[in-house]
Amino acid sequence: MVSELTRESSPEDATDALVDGDRAWAPGTAMAALANRDFRIVWGGTFASNIGTWMQNVLLGAYGYELTHSATFVGVLFFAQLGPLLVLSTVGGVLADALDRRKLLIFGQVAQLVFSLVLAALVVPKHPSHAGIVLCVLAIGIFNALSAPALSAILPTLVPRPDLPGAVSLQSVQMNLSRVIGPAIGAAIYARTGAATVFVINAATYFFAVAGLMLARYDRRPANGGIEERGLARLLSGFRLAWADPLVRRVLTIMFTFSFFSLTFVGLMPALAAKNLHIRPKSEAYGLLYAGFGMGAAIGAICVGTVLARRSKARIARVALVAFAALLAAFGSVHTKAAAYPLAVVLGFAYFSAITSMSTVLQEHLTDNVRGRIMAIWMMAFGGTVPLGVLAGGVVANHSSITLVMLIGAGWALALSWYADLDAVSRPG
Asked: Which domains does the chain have, with CATH numbers?
């Protein structure tokens, strides 16, 4: 039986190379996706916005550690920031499949803009309210969780189906280039003027995303993916669909557990830098360390959509998980800056080679009428579960060592490399 999530092949899926002027691009590559005007507009707007977001995200952890010198408080901030994805992504997924996605996205961007300005005001005093900061970050996280699935849902409508792998790759690229550019700029501003300036600049960048969403031409109507359930059943319909499909079930299981056990280093980077490498979180050296990680991740995502575009994404994911396990163990164990900086780059490369490959496999497998709900669960796994792992990892680090937390994550990633045999479940039975 063919799963209801699997898109049927069509003659259009075998179209010739997309032509941009006199230059032909092979379908499925990043350049072919960029040849589509509306994709470029939305991609560019969200890219600019994400630079500001990662200025704030990364520097928020550094600010929290400087303020309290507590890995636990950093974990709480990280949970407030991304934890809503764990609880509210399913709501956002249903909204993405039932409402005007453009209005939903614009509302979410404007709300995050407003609360970023509030956050800037909160950190101005010499002794700011810890609770106030956490609550404001939580509000930003809530609006992100409610609107983010809609962005994943409109992505396939901006490019022809054959170019979807390139579009997914480019989404990963912009996410990770944002991690490079944002922290590098934010660290310099933070070191010289403080956190408030960083948060105000982030608020301003939301205008780019809003402009892109308003200028692009795409189907604004809800997908109306045959959501017949009501109440709680409707809210949980994405889980029903995911569980019924072996490929989706395996991909999401990998992401939930990988995020909890292996991605704790993302939120605990300030503590790791301070304890193992003697790098102050409020320094350009820390910004460069995180930027190196983001650069490696961006290169990994680019490679999946370019030089590796014709390779099996399922196989890339397995190899990348093995590499990630070895590199995370090394990164968590070194105590010299000279070794940490290059390790951060290749760790980021392995990390997002795996993530981009699995995301591509999933996106190509889904039909548009369920995409919002399934991608909402992906976001829960990818973003929402990480804060839980960071909270647990922060407690373990405070009672033992940050290195132990990294080694646990490395061991789990290695185990997942065996389980991540997506080829075994990608062909309908």
From this structure: 26-426 (1.20.1250.20)
